[in-house]
Amino acid sequence: MGDADLLNLIVRTVVSLSVVLAVIGVAFAIARRRAATGSVGRSSRRRAPAPAIEVVGRAGLARSASAVALRFGDRVVMVGVSDQAPTAVLAEIDAATWDDLHPAEETLVPTPVPFGANGTAVADPGAPRPSFFDALRDATTRRA
Length: 144
Prior knowledge:
Blueprint: H1 3-37, E1 53-62, E2 65-72, E3 75-82, E4 88-94, H2 95-101, H3 132-140
Antiparallel strand pairs: 1-2, 2-3, 3-4
């Protein structure tokens, strides 16, 4: 094999590789443009958006089993979930009934805390300090 044959082989390989890389680049540009416009795999008709699923309640029943309340539009479905058994629908009620039975959680309003010159919180020196159990009871008591 002479030098001319080797040079010819190298030129053909470089040209072939350039053509393949150009085809891949064009395909990538087209795919990226279609993904940005959302036209990949869609039909010409518009589909209605899928209904939103919202988890509105959860209760642990055992180590690997729980009951989950899911809201689908105007319905609330109670589903049993377990590692050992398939998912099962336990109950179904109207969302309005669910809302009547489970009022909205209270919103917490932050209270401003005064800070000293060094950036630490300043407590009222005249206020009595609650015991650990009183503070724990205040923190865990449900207020209606």
